Description:
Helix 5 crosses helix 6 (132-141) and helix 9 runs antiparallel to helix 13 (290-319). Helix content is 69%, strand content 2%. The two termini are 12 Å apart. The chain is mainly α. It has one domain (3-407).
Amino acid sequence: MAKASLPLGNLRGVAILLIVAFHSFSAYIVSQPAQPLAFDLAPYDWRAFPIIDSERWLGFDLFCAFQFLYLMQLMFFLSGLFVWPSLRRRGWRKYLGRRLIRLGVPFVVGAYLLMPVAFYPVYRVTALDPSWQAYWSHWTALPVTASGPMWFLWVLIALDIGAALLCRLAPGAGDSLASLLAKGATHPGRFFVVVGGVTAVAYLPLAAVFSPWDWVGFGPFEVQAAFVPQYLLYFLFGLVVGAQGHESGLLDSNGGLVRRWASWIVGSFAAFFIWIIPTALIVKVPGAPVAALRVIGDLGLVIFAAAACFGMIALFLRFANARWPVIDSISECAYGIYFFHYLFVLWLQFLLLGMAFPAIGKGLIVLVGAVILSWAASVVTSRTLASVGTVLTRAAPLLGVFSTPDDRLSPTKISTPGTD
């Protein structure tokens, strides 16, 4: 990774760790259901609350709520940053072909092979017959396909297809939008207003119908209904910012965003309270004006998501310009860690059920264990793919598979689903 993109690489690594932490701690939040949820009964809410432990800690509620409201928006923004440079470099056909393989194959493998193994302990918690045979009969009889975190991959595929079509139909669109953004990016406050305003217009109508926790979809193609427009818009914002370059405009390490990093961080926490206070009043106060509080909370959500994304970017541009060995390695293995982590999170949470141990201790054990195991699985997978790629590259000329040296395969490295 080039020196200019070190802050983005460090941010990517930390973002992946936060995702693993969110899933690791979610079994121990106070707002979890009181009892494990039945595996065979609609609406199959165990997909959102897979493992439920009797040990709880309110601090995990606050942490998980904080991450839930902005983290995937940030991930889509980071994914979009690398799209237009890749389209310029490869052309839309090669770019789309690589993305379909890079994201599509892991999505299918993850949804149909990895997730059944990951959700097995969820079935065992309430099962009369805990055998794999019984589980498989229940799993295949479900009218839903629980894809877990794999949903991020198929949504990225859809967005990449849209970006490739944009490049095909309007090759200069990214550069034109980047030129337009160049004027606003020198004033991050104005750009923040645009991001917050556009995402609010997109989110509020859906928020009146769906809660942030409602999932819709067909088969493994599930997504949070209310957040779909936000994900699309943050990907688009990332695409436009990335078209301008990774060291200029909004991402300028000496720009206005970085100079006011502390204000963005403080503003993020302030905006969080605009969401959490109305949400708490709706739940805790009988007779509260629900409709008005819900609108305030929904506005707080979009303001917080934008402020948190701006704050995280500013913080890392200001303080993460050096190579951090551990985070650097995690960033390089980010895709693999994301792909594997849910398997280890659910099994570790399951193994800790019934143990008389404080929730904070259990959460940290799951986090550390899941990071180490998914990290190791990512490294092993990356090296295996690299070895296979090397063998095929050497064998290809003998087999006459490729006509020119430029067509030969190169070793594959797992890094992150949003880069190419």
